[in-house]
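Researcher: We're teaching a course module on how sequence relates to structure. For the next exercise, students receive a sequence and then see the predicted structure as tokens, so they can try to spot secondary structure elements on their own. Here is the exercise chain.
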Amino acid sequence: MGLVDAISFLSIIPVRHGSLEKVSTSQHWFPVVGLLLGVISGGVGWIVSLYAEPLLAAVAALATLSIITGLHHTDGLADFADGLMGRGDSKKRLQIMRDKMVGTGGITAVILCIACFLASASQVGGMEIFVAIIVAEVAAKYSMIVASYLGRPAAGGSGATFCANMNRRQLIISTAWWVVPVIFAPHMVLPMLAGVLTSITILYIAKRTIHGMTGDVFGAINEASRAVSIAVVVSI
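Model: And here is the predicted structure for the students to work with:
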């Protein structure tokens, strides 16, 4: 039931909810869930693009994606950005990230990711927006796998659980899923790699600022990788 556990964590699709421990041992299914989410939200964007302007289609696709994911990782992006903008050592930054209030750093980071997605997705229509969103979503979910494998936990919580239960077998399986879009569209290897590069970059920043991985970093990587990947998709 690993796929079901991954779906329960990454979306609000009404399936049996698995524990965080079970989800962390099912990470290799993340790209498949990304494919599912991409098909749903990209499908909405494709349908709307047949009857409305590209920007409206992009908004419809993003709204669908936001609803179906429950904005689960957007909160992580906001918290991580607030921590980066904060003053002090790693302990102080982690304390800021745990604060329930969202600061200007978090708000700005979320706006930039949304703007990047909309600006990119609105450049294409029809089947192109469908494919672009699928590729971006698969890339985003695979970037989380890379983070789990390469990252080291900065503190307890979900970040530590995911890092602890990631292994080479899961990485290989998830990489095989990651390759599927590339098989059908070889030129899509660039946006897929862009997602990986984004993940590694954020991991490096997190290591320098808070000394490792947290659940908020995990969420930030998903959101940022999606935005970067779809920007690369439409650019090529």
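Model: If you want an answer key for the exercise: Residues 144 and 222 are 6 Å apart (CA to CA). Residues 127-150 form the longest helix (24 residues).
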